[in-house]
Structure prediction request, 288 residues.
Amino acid sequence: MPFATEQDKRVCRDLHRQYGTTYYFASRRFEPRIRERVDALYAFVRVPDEWVDNPSEPLECVAAKLKNYREEMERGMEGDTPEEPALRAFCDLLREGSVPVAEARLFLDAMVQDLTVSRYQTYSELEGYMRGSAAAVGMMMAAILEAPQTPDVLAGACALGNAMQLTNFLRDIGEDYQRGRVYLPLDDLERFRVSESEIATGVMGEGFRSLMQFEIARARELYAQADQAIQEIPASRRLAVRLARVLYARILDRIEEMDYNVFAARARTSRMEKVSTAARLVAAHYLG
Prediction:
């Protein structure tokens, strides 16, 4: 018997709508069964992410909550009903085999890492973090969408997760710094002669612009790597993924239009842009 009640499913849907506006908008193009699974996955990752990013208690308490969250998930797979609504819905996915538990564990490992690691010297080190925080989510999405589990498709799922995560890092540089974190490789800051004091004060020098151009190009390459894999997703689910991919990549365009000043305002797509992009992609999907 499933753990999740209709109220639990509403909680997941509401979390998705509140915190993941672009993902939520795109995901409404899935059929109801897949949409419900995506809501559960989003809620599963959002709950601990909020604990870590916006803690209302000491970090040792957050660590304890993460430990309990993981233990509830593990017990849930054995048949014990979790206390957290998001976990009840997510454990239903685990028990029915809709998502690989190894990827869920990797994601929770990344949340724990955020409590103690705030800098990454190289891009390779950052990729190690993103394997849990982003690529794992892409892998779980691929399973939920019932995409072919081939090496190319899974590599594309990881690339898309990392592309979206890197987009977030570029958009949220100032916010992340206020949390004590720098998610751009320190090697890259050194290469473009950008100091942490510049990030702290929001200084917009030529070095910072060059750094942003470099990282934006890296993110776009990841989106490009994901595009071929998107073509392998079942046709009825491809549109929603393509819409999320296009809209999220547009954030990079907004950053460029802002002359890379991510400290002055949050780069985002408007509701009108979401609607017009959806209309264009729907037309291309059915007429192309």
Remarks:
- The radius of gyration is 19 Å.
- The longest helix spans residues 206-230.
- The mean pLDDT is 95.
